[in-house]
Input
Amino acid sequence: MYDPVVTLQRILKVYFRAGTEVSVLRDLSFSIPAGTFLAIMGPSGSGKSTLLNLMAGIDRPTSGVVVVAGTRLHELSEGDMARWRARHIGYVFQSYNLIPVLTAAENVELPLLLTHLSRSERTDHVKTALRLVGLGDRMDHYPRQLSGGQEQRVGLARAIVSDPTMILADEPTGNLDRESAEDILTLFGRLNRELGKTIVMVTHDPRAAERAQLIRHLEKGVLETPP
Amino acid sequence: MTLGRLILRNTMRRPVRLGLTVGGLAMVVLAFGLIRLTLDQWQASSRAALKNRLITVHAMSDELRLPLAYKDRLTVIPGARTVHFGSVFGGVYQDPKQSFGSFAEQASTFFETYPEVVLSDAERLAFLQDRRGCIIGHRLAARFGWKVGEAITLKGTVYPGDWELVVRGIFRSTSPNVMGEGELYLHWAYANERLKTTEPDRADQVGWFVVRAADGINGQTVAEAIDASFANSSAETRTESEQAYFAGWVARSGALLRGLEWMSGIINGIALLVLVNALAMAVRERTREYAVIKTLGFQPLHLVSLVLGESLLLALLGGGFGLVLLFPAAQLYAVMTQDRGYVASYSITTETMGMCLGVMLLVGLLAAVWPAIRLIRMTTLEGLRHAG
Amino acid sequence: MMLWGAYSLRNLWARRVTTAFTVAGMGLVVFVFLAVLMLAHGLERTLGKTGDPANAILLRKGALSEIDSSISRDHAKIIALQSGIKQTLEGRPVAVSEIGLQLTLRKAKERSLASLSLRGTSHDAFAVRPKVRLAQGRLWEPGTTEIMVGAQVAKQFPEAGLHHVLNFGNRAWTVVGVFDADGSGFDSEVWGDAEQFMATFHRTAFSSMTVRLTRPDALAQVKEPLERDPRFNLSVKREPDYYEGKAESLAKMIRVTGLFLTAVFSIGAIMGATMTMSAAVAQRTTEIGTLRTLGFTRLAILQTFLIESMALGASAGLLGIAGASFLQSVTISTVNWDTGSEIAFGFYLSPVMVGLALLFAVLMSMVGGLIPATRAARLEVVQALGERTV
Output
């Protein structure tokens, strides 16, 4: 166990757009203790997705230190970063991003191809993950045969199948109707409570954020101090 | 599931595009195969030709003939086993445009010199005994519907006059690239006899001598001995193995062969462009998916293998389909180019097939380079933002 | 209402990578197509220019070429007096008795053999063929072993260039001049003194006579009496007619092989064009829906995509033509299967062929674009708008 799972120190993130500098994150420092279900809220453009991507190891800060799961991310090469992601991060996308030519089970199995598990072990893991999200009977369906909520549940199963250290979710309910959104949020809650997973969810939906243990607001690249 | 399955599914994803890509590649392979067949055919005669069969011709000119008297001097060259001779007869049947090869040959040494000729003993004997007889290849017989025993009249071009000949045999060849099956052979003695009256100063001359070197004797040594013995005479000779002689004729069309080779290179460029285009479209459409796969922790090398796998699969499908089409197309091509004097038949060798597939593999490899580089360069974030 | 023009072209530009691949692929097909036509045409032109319609050539009856033919010296003298044959102011007939031969030469560079056409003739040859003119050096001195070579011989066989010496028939022959025969087959010939050649090749007779007619339509005046005369056993032909068929096998081979192959891989290129246009339609489904909602008709949509496809084809055509035009400076020297001797000819590009190539390219792209364009036009508005583009 890594505790805290995430430590960010003096993070600065600057983009160059059309010749002008845009600072997205300004001198941001905070940490996330293990086993937390954290919601990061903020209007669009507040830098919340950037923050999530920094933690996920798919983006790098302009300056500052990012330590996630005991690893100083900014020091890793691209290849090592990918290996690290495979081991520690489960990522849930707003638009599900399932591979359309693969079945639900195959989509979930995808991250396991990077492990040394045998074929039968992989199948076991996939079944467990899909049952956990309530789709044990949809294994052989293709994404186009599933509803949006079901697709997102497959996305969730894909995120947890390799038992990562942390689950990161970028607006996971943004494309879903209320009912499906509730299902997903309930699943997050269960994963956090029953399996002790650290979950970081970015959202601008207050009703989604309410389900988290902890809510932090990001405004113009600065994290508001909790009251 | 494996990445292989993902490659397969990706390839099959858009059936129309798959069909068009594979079809386009197949057409290119087909054209490439036809060119290789043509080139093979050119080389085939010299490859199948015998090394110990020597051809002696006039050194100064293709059209000049050698004195018949050379025969006696050739017979005593050490290492020469049999000395045979012949000339172009140049017979025309009805229409000069419907040309075929006809040759006046010394009958007594013909079969010994050309063991490729397959003819029944009875027909062989009938030909040898009839001075006005001729034997014809079965393809020629089929072309004009000639039967054994039939009398045919040819108009002579090299040997002037009308010639009444009787078909005494229809032969096949064990090596059609060397001894064709579309030619006619008649007695040189008969042709020469009439020339003595019509054009006496051209009589007693032959187009070539064919000397078979005795077993175990180096043909080259014999050839050199022959040319040395006629050096500085009024008609110097040029002696080469049959193989070198055929190769020399092929080399004279070298510019055309090089043209064909260029063409075969260019059309592989077309294959490359078709495949790169298909891959580029596919990769662009799937940019987001590749980014997702990358987010899951896959390495750039994994993505490259996905693209490369798809590229090779498409190339091989195209290559395989093209080869399947090559067989009927080669038949059609052979019919279209028949009797143009340069191709007898097309046989598709494993070498040709291997070459077609090999070239496609290369095209598959090269086509993946550019899309793969784009994928490697793509950062995960850019990919995720891609609108498709 | 018209939608094409700027809209189509901008779409091509927006997808420029795919556009470039498609144009390049089709361009290569056009290039090969044109190269084949140019080569076959170049060969025919070379032979077509060989000989002058105002000349007649006389050969032994039944002879297909000069090599099979013979005309004795005595006959040649009588024949030259035939009426219908042009005479000089001094009253000498404009006629030349010649002997056509072949010389086997080993090319110095490639070490391969080649046969050169040898023409034993006299200076009268230049009077009979006014288009052949001295380009370098001087004419041969009659009665000597001096020779002249055609422009292509000088180019293709450096060992037979000006001032070089050829050895054959145990004699040395010096090249004293180069003649230019205006791109005709004579450019691939070696000319020299007929008597010297006859002596060297052990010939006693000429092989042909070429005579200049008083008027181009005077052929019958020469042909009828000479062909009827049993002494001569002659056939008389107009000179270009004789040379024209002299490379039929070669021309046919180039055409048949070249066009067969072009046909095969143009199908490949059509498939490439279909693929590109299908992708364009698929990518712009929503756009098509929007355009239809705005009131554009199915026909307008069909036109747009067809025009876009044809623009692809036209660019490919231009690219192919541009590439092929560079071939014009290339000369190919190869054996003529009908005569056995070397002939040099170039790639010849005519305006008609440029048009043909452009037509071919546009046709290819039209066929390729037709199915996708029809599909685009058939899309239902609601369905097109509802389609997810991601």
In short: The mean pLDDT of chain C is 87. Chain C touches chain B through 64 residues (CB under 8 Å). The first helix of chain C runs from residue 6 to 14.
